Amino acid sequence: MSTCNAYGACEAHADLTPMRIERRALRADDVAIVIDYCGICHSDAHAVHNDWGSTVYPCVPGHEIVGRVSAVGPRVTRFKPGDRVAVGCLVDSCQTCPSCEDGQQQNCTQGPTATYNGRDRHTRETTLGGYSESIVVREEFVLRVPAALDMRYAGPLLCAGITVWTPLRRYGVGAGSRVAVVGLGGLGHMAVKLAVALGAQVTVITTSASKADDARALGASDVLLSKDPKAMQAAASRFDFILDTIPTKHNVNPYLMLLGRNGVLVLVGALEPLEAVHGALLVMNNRSITGSLIGGLPATQELLDFCAEHNVLPDCEIVDVHGINAAFRRMQANDVKYRFVIDMASLRDVKVD
Amino acid sequence: MSTCNAYGACEAHADLTPMRIERRALRADDVAIVIDYCGICHSDAHAVHNDWGSTVYPCVPGHEIVGRVSAVGPRVTRFKPGDRVAVGCLVDSCQTCPSCEDGQQQNCTQGPTATYNGRDRHTRETTLGGYSESIVVREEFVLRVPAALDMRYAGPLLCAGITVWTPLRRYGVGAGSRVAVVGLGGLGHMAVKLAVALGAQVTVITTSASKADDARALGASDVLLSKDPKAMQAAASRFDFILDTIPTKHNVNPYLMLLGRNGVLVLVGALEPLEAVHGALLVMNNRSITGSLIGGLPATQELLDFCAEHNVLPDCEIVDVHGINAAFRRMQANDVKYRFVIDMASLRDVKVD
Predict the structure, then answer these.
(1) Start and end of every Enoyl reductase (ER) domain (chains A, B) (predicted)?
(2) Interchain pair A277, B277: CB under 8 A
């Protein structure tokens, strides 16, 4: 057992405060990691606020973790101290169900262990996340950060990035694909960059004309204003693949209209009932709506490698730990382009009573 | 030009009445067909009643047509007089768009020509369907009825059958597939028979315990009562593929729950807004909802050949033309197991004023 500094919430809606937390002693297959950077994800705020009714306090969020190996258990074979590593949304799973065997640990039929507010499969203790100096993680859930990938910006790939990468790959987006991305936030901006890097022609669909320049700067070739009925009508059946990042209840019918034959709309944001989907829009053109949840370990490693090779990085604003609460408030006001990353070095000097 | 007897509607909601109609003179690529049998489809009633607001009167319905070739145009190469043939929901399309080139004429981007209440691509006249003694159809839209297929029962394959066959094939249903069919009407009973013949394990989901014996008689290995919450809960994530034949607005969430990882629910009935689909049910397990519309010519021929080879036939009640109006009323009261077929021989003796 060891202790380290962290930032966490003691109760719903309270500001995050510095605290000391315990990390488990290394098991044989564990990797101990000194955390250098941790991205801030919208779900961190949902957890801290107990929006999903399942938060256990104190809650230390953070599942976009980048750092270096400080120690390894005796059975660890892939990592050694000093290695650049990353940990995403998952730290364990059953490893034996069909989903795990397919490398889709996020769909583990027994339920994967979340990086924070999960339950350790051995001790049943609540897991604590990456807003902390260090973490101990089972080797199979540790990813390698390629030398060419800037550590400061790698964090958001582990949640925002993999969330959009999984469906881009599942549906074979590549050269010639006609892709639309609905919403230009943390997930949307990664989807644009990744789809462009995969060779697709990318349109951003937004309610806000003011985002057109940003969309083009990210690589989009076109911008479609969803509030412009003529433009929407003119784009009917234009796309093969639409990534819908809207995080709340909404009407997908105007987007379904834009799908051509066998086109697919993938929800990655809305975890709630949608407004009434029109059956005829699915029957005509054989359109589909599907959803996608983060991604498995092999796909996440593939993403890190792809981003290193193609120099694709999220646009991040780096804050120190003392700025966490202000960053949370700005994130919830959509005042960030496009993700916050916490520089964890600033946590090492914090004195916690 | 030639005239023949038919049964049609002169105005919305009126009974069908005998009438004389004209059939075009053979074009070079046309096949003239003497109709022996024509299935009655729910959409025939919708058209006759103008439920979709697009009916042109007089309307002669019927798009499950089975008969024999009586004459061919000079450029026809695949058929000769006497051949056993069939015509389904489509009698023409542009033949040049990507959908047509893929043999998906039902998705022709210029709009296919429907067998009735469509518009002839040359004359712009309204097409008249199969509740008639004869029909003239472009060769490419004429199907071959294999010798082993009973002509009396082939009709419903051309709409009910192909509607369920297309998604069964698109999603690779076969040995080992865990399939559920929601609703046991004309479409549902064909889906059960075809999925069983493809080697799948088939469950029928129904509101009515009284349908259990029927479902098993059709080949289903299991029956799930959608009104039994415990049974539904116990079946969570059990299926790979659900064919949803419910023809009206409904709640798909209880069925989505039943899909395992990458599972697909295919709508073939509901052409209207669904009750609110829950986004989380799509995101978890990467479930999809999609729709499917009848099928293309190659798939329809494949279905006829498959049914001949595997001796799969719809359960039909055969009526003569004088029973059309009674059959319509019984169909709309769901009082048929499972499709009506009109014996068109009975139309030849009708005297029309």
Answers:
(1) 11-342
(2) yes
Q: Which chain B residues touch A274 with a CB distance below 8 Å?
A: 276-279
- Flag if A291 and B268 touch (Cβ within 8 Å): no
CA pair distance A222, A229, nearest whole angstrom: 16
Domain assignments of chain A as residue spans, ordered by start? 2-159+295-347, 161-291
- Are B109 and B172 contacting, i.e. CB atoms less than 8 angstroms apart? no
Residue of A nearest to B287 (CA): A290
Q: What is the value of ipTM here, to two decimals?
A: 0.91
Residue A352 has pLDDT above 80, yes or no: no
Beta-carbon contacts below 8 Å between A and B: 108
Integer Cα distance of B63 and A92 in angstroms: 56
Residues of B within an 8 Å Cβ radius of A: 98-99, 104, 107, 109, 170, 237, 261, 264, 267-293
Tens-digit pLDDT profile for residues A323-343: 999 999 999 998 999 999 999
The tens digit of pLDDT for each residue in B287-304 reads: 999 999 999 999 999 999
Per cent of chain B over pLDDT 90 is 92
Q: What superfamily in CATH does domain B161-291 come from?
A: NAD(P)-binding Rossmann-like Domain (3.40.50.720)
pLDDT tens sequence across A11-34: 998 999 999 999 999 999 999 999
Q: List CB contacts of B31: < 8 A, sequence separation 6 or more.
A: B69, B71, B72, B73, B76, B79, B85, B136, B137, B138, B139, B142
Contacts of A104 in chain B (CB under 8 A): 261
Query: How many CB atoms within 10 Å of residue B211?
Result: 20
Domain A2-159+295-347 indexed as CATH 1.10.340.30 = no
Banded model confidence at residue B269, pLDDT cuts 50, 70, 90: confident
Alpha carbon of B272: minimum distance to chain A alpha carbons (Å): 5
- Closest residue to B291, CB basis, from A273, A286, A292: A286
